Amino acid sequence: MIVGVIRRQKMGILTRATKNLSRRKTRAIIIIIALTLALTMLIILPPSINAREAMTRYAFNGLISADSALKGTITLSATEIQCDYPPFFNSSMIGSSSTSNILTQSFMNESLYNNITSIPDVTNVIPILDVWAVSYGPYEIYGAPVENASFQMDPTILPANITEGRNLRVGDSGVVVLDEETAKNFSVSVGGTITLSGRNFTVVGIEGSELPQPTHGVTMSLADAQAITNMTGEASAYKIFVDNIDNVNTVVTRISSLDPKLQVSAGLSQLNTAEPLQNQITELTQAAQNNLNQIQGTGLAEISIAIIADAAIILFIMLYSVRERTREIGTLKAMGASNTTILGQFMLEGVVLSLVAAVVAIAIGVVVVPTLASLLLPTPVQTAVGFGWAPNGTVVLTRISFGPRPILTGNGSNVIAAPITPEIMLLGLGAAILLGALGSLYPALKAARTKPAEAMRYE
Amino acid sequence: MSDLVLKIENLTKTYKIGKRDVQPLTNLNLEVKKGEFTAIMGPSGSGKTTLLNVIGCIDKATSGKVLIDNVDVAKLPESKLYKIRRDKIGFIFQNFNLVPYLNARENVELAMELAGKFQGQRSERAKEFLATVGLSGREQHSPQRLSQGEQQRVAIARALAKDPAIILADEPTGNLDVTNKQEIVKLLADLNQKQGTTIIMVTHDEQVAAQTQRTLYLNDGKIIKDKQPQKDALLDSSSKSKEA
Asked: Are residues A143 and A136 in contact, defined by beta-carbon separation less than 8 angstroms?
């Protein structure tokens, strides 16, 4: 409607709107300053909120990953003990898989198995043979004891994430589950056949790669694995089950005494040491979530205030203008101005005011974004968590930090990147036009509906 | 009504002030021919300005007919009345009512712009109209930089710019000193004589009214005397019969 009026009147209406602003310069400047403050907030807040959100979300996601990784380190149940020979390095950081290439494996033989089985209170010993690629060839061979159902006592023994086909099951022989990478190398899918050490194996399932659980290369029955690696009777780890939690420590001592080189991890220790760490990470995650909520809540509240302030300033100033210029409105009507023309002129005045302020706000915003955003919004947080496990199987926190991210102005990595992009500028100008039109709508309608005779009598 | 630009039949205007009904115009009849220069005189509250407002379509008649160029504007809604004001009426006010933030030329252009006239040559035409009223060289002056007489000249140029059927002047000399008053009346009389502009002017001043071709005397919302050079002291027939 306003556009139509402008087009018909060849921009005369715009000239009048602009000229009226310049009539009372001091007043116009004060109004523009007030509008500029509101619009500067409106222009700098969205990108600053986004930048802060992204930072805190990064910290938040880091904590979620740490929590997930921590859960992944709890591989044993409370009455479960794992023993194996450590490779050269007796501790390992989460995610440092590349170190396996330089480590050497040691295996346990049948006599050790018999000794452990004979320890009182031990109810079950489940051997696993995990032969790393460096020991066997291009593929990791993982032998799971599926000859009987006892392996089901530990759900981590079999691959956890089967994406195609099926997992191994009791009694399987001559079949394998491949991880995605290995299947790709063999160019084989479920139902296909691979040959290892001259023996054919049917692929029954594909194991998806999903952190933090490591995948196994080629998973098959323990007997098959021992056969193709020529390691009959040998195992890389034993999963040992004790009849009672109270006897776990005794059994751990007994196993350790069999061979001091053995690495013995107790599920009870894993659980006991992981729990406070998990609680700590949960608290930090909550704190990061609170920070995120605070950034969003404060930002939204401030954007709302800026919108309301901008529209309200225009509303009141235009109401005042309509009242002050009642005789002018009467004169224009007496001269034949239509209601639409009057409506268009006053709405356009509101829009021009808002637009001028928006241009100033953009110019200011470009310069003061980091400083002003720091005053208006909560500081985002940063966090760092690192942990591993000790030779005795306890989980150890190696590093934990959480706190406000230092914000610097100028150039540098800590400057919150929230530039006023051309898109933001256009959005700011669009918002200014919309708010100018909205704020001046009621005053403009009031002006348009003024009866000329009454307006002419107005003093 | 071929040579009539205005015909008013039984015009009554009533409005309320608080709980009191006021009737500034009562059964008023009037005919104005094209090219007439008419003065309306009468004491305060006699209905002069109300009559001018009704003719100018900025106020509505309560009853009766008001025909401007054969169109009964008394029955038109506001959505059509503004077009009559835009195309048929030119106003000259006692307080000039120039738009304060526009200069003399822009004030005249505004009238053309609203009327949709002289598109593309408004600036030149505005200068011509200002020259007609003796304001050559003052086009860029804002109203504040013009004398009262000059402001009224701009207002006259603004009214002329629309080429209206009738110019309604509400005490155009009311705020002017003697010299300016004489000049403005002379200007209006010249415009009437040379360009045939129909002018209806409200005035309190006998000397100003004496410059016109016809003077109507109003009292209590009725025309009590219609003085014309040819027909001295001819009373409006309707008003006369009412009084009887």
From this structure: no
- Does the beta carbon of B102 lie under 8 angstroms from any beta carbon of chain A? yes
| Residue A165 burial (CB count, 10 A) | 16
Average pLDDT over chain A reads: 84
Average the pLDDT over each of A46-60, A69-83, A224-238 and give the range with the smallest value.
A69-83
Minimum Cα–Cα distance from A5: chain B residue: B114
**CB-based contacts of A120: which residues, under 8 Å, 6+ apart?**
none
How many inter-chain contacts (A to B, CB under 8 Å) are there?
A: 78
Cα–Cα distance for residue pair A321/A323, rounded to 1 Å = 5
The domains of chain A are located at: 2-70+277-457, 128-235
Query: A209-213, A244-248, B27-31 — which is least confidently predicted?
Result: A209-213
Predicted local confidence at residue B227, as pLDDT:
85
pTM value? 0.69
CATH number of B4-98+163-235: 3.40.50.300
Over residues A401-414, the pLDDT tens digits come to: 788 776 544 444 45
Give per-residue pLDDT as tens, B62-82.
999 999 998 999 989 888 999
Name which of B113, B142, B168, B77 is nearest A334 in CA terms.
B168
What's the rounded Cα separation, in Å, for the pair B93 and A347? 27
Q: What is the pLDDT of residue A74?
A: 72
User: B234 to chain A nearest CA, in Å?
Assistant: 31
* pLDDT at residue number A359: 94
Q: Among residues B87, B85, B104, which one has the least CA distance to residue B96? A: B104
Asked if CATH classification 2.40.40 holds for the domain at A128-235, the reply, yes or no, is yes
Interface of B with A in 148-207 (CB under 8 A): 158, 162
Cβ burial, residue A355 (10 Å; 0-12/13-18/19+): middle
Residues in chain B with pLDDT < 70?
1-2, 229-244
Both tokens of B146, joined, read 């013009």
Kindly provide the ipTM of the predicted complex, given to two decimals.
0.87
Q: Chain B neighbours among A 230-289 (CB < 8 Å)?
A: none
Buried b (16+ CB within 10 A) or exposed e, B179-189: ebbbbbbebbb
- Distances in whole angstroms, Cα of residue A320 to Cα of each of A346, A443, A459: 12, 9, 14
- Do the chains contact at A16 and B56, CB–CB below 8 Å? no
User: Among partner residues B87, B93, B102, which is closest to A336 by beta-carbon distance?
Assistant: B87
* Closest to A406 measured CA to CA, from A380, A437, A435, A370: A380
Does residue A212 have a cis peptide bond before it, meaning omega lies within 30 degrees of 0?
yes
Q: How far is B33 from chain A (nearest CA, A)?
A: 22
Cα angle value B125/B130/B136 (rounded, 5°): 110
Chain A contact present for B13, CB below 8 A:
no
Residue extents of the structural domains in chain B: 4-98+163-235
Residue A427 banded pLDDT, cuts 50, 70, 90? very high
